């Protein structure tokens, strides 16, 4: 049996980063712009207006990369056990 301390951090980080990355992708597709003074949903879904498009896309790729890699490590850990 796998210890809770082995799989829970990977599942938490992987799930959180992947979810945020997918929400940002959805926001890009809908053209939502975030920023200060906007509702929390616009901040979560939207791109940062003071950053360049390239930097916004880089952050989404970073979020998805971290999330998917953690979920992949978790999957390998579960298959190994």
Description:
With 81 residues, this protein is mainly alpha-helical. It has one domain (4-80). It is 75% helix and 0% strand. It has helices spanning 4-30, 40-45, 53-80. Helix 1 (4-30) packs antiparallel against helix 3 (53-80). The chain is elongated. 15% of the residues are buried. The model has no long low-confidence stretch (mean pLDDT 94).
Notable traits:
single chain; about 80 residues; mainly alpha; 3 helices; about 75% helix; about 0% strand; elongated
Mean pLDDT: 94
Name the overall outline.
Answer: elongated
> What share of the residues lie within helices?
over 70%
Using only C-alpha atoms, the radius of gyration works out to: 15 Å
Distance between the termini: 7 Å
Helix and strand composition category? mainly alpha
Query: Low-confidence spans: pLDDT under 50, at least 5 residues?
Result: none
Condensed summary:
The chain is mostly helical and about 80 residues long. About 75% of the residues lie in helices and about 0% in strands.
Topology readout:
Layout: H1 4-30, H2 40-45, H3 53-80
Helix pairs in contact: 1-3
């Amino acid at each position: 049996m796998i210890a809770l301390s082995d799989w829970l951090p990977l599942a938490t980080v992987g799930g959180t980063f992947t979810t945020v990355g997918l929400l940002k992708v959805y926001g890009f597709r809908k053209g939502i712009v975030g920023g200060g003074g906007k509702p929390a949903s616009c901040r979560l879904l939207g791109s940062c207006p003071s950053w360049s498009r390239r930097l916004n896309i880089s952050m989404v790729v970073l979020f998805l990369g971290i999330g998917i890699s953690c979920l992949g490590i978790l999957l390998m850990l579960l298959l190994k056990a």
